[in-house]
């Protein structure tokens, strides 16, 4: 593959958030785009975690705006920057949040970037993270998305994509890092493997005592795409960083495009923590069934049903949504 094509592939991976982003300036090797989306999301019957709703609906509506730019420095060398902010309609301490905010340089398909961005494992966790309630594999800080203070290397080598990320913290011995690789085979099959670590970790979701043990995660994924059919599966295991507590997390996703407008999905997700000296805790255990209808390249509607069997979940969730992308 030509170096210029490699560079384009890396940049597309780095700064793609909306394929509909509008080019507002393009001249002399410099390009600037604006994109985003407005998305109504209403949860009925129960919140995402299965907590029963007292009223009619839990409003999860959100909007995102992103700015992205690239400029050519020399042949095969480009500078790039990306910024994305999200605003939530629901009252919370994080009603307005910067999701991505980074800049970097790409040299013949090898990109180095700095700022708030995805950790390396995300390129593997995306294999199964296609639903409204998925994303279980971002289990520790070292495998999370849109993370602050990250130094990242990303490189494309034909069918092989390699990534390495390091998250710098202000506290001593609390940095995180990750490495990952994906390999795409000609028949539509893709394989992925990632390793992530937090030097210190306190897992507030399952903690019984405050601990500063190291947390780690090994993540494997496989996906297959053929015409209108898609399958993605991921499995990870690791240590929560809280004493000897360990976890096993899995997601299996199937999707099929019935027509150009209609898409159906079925997903299973489970995240179990093995508490040292105690019983296992199912943080997530659900089946998600979803249907999507695309009106045009800008507007999409969907309905998703989450059959929730996690520990502490009171009821199932029904989510209705409509998303306008620009």
UniProtKB/TrEMBL annotation:
Signal peptide residues on this chain, from the entry's feature table: 1-21
Location in or out of the cell: Cell outer membrane
Membrane topology: Multi-pass membrane protein
Gene3D superfamilies with a match to the protein in the record: Porin
Protein origin, superkingdom: Bacteria
Keywords: Membrane, Signal
Family: Belongs to the Gram-negative porin family.
Protein name, entry field: Porin
Species this protein is from: Vibrio zhugei
Phylogenetic lineage: Bacteria, Pseudomonadati, Pseudomonadota, Gammaproteobacteria, Vibrionales
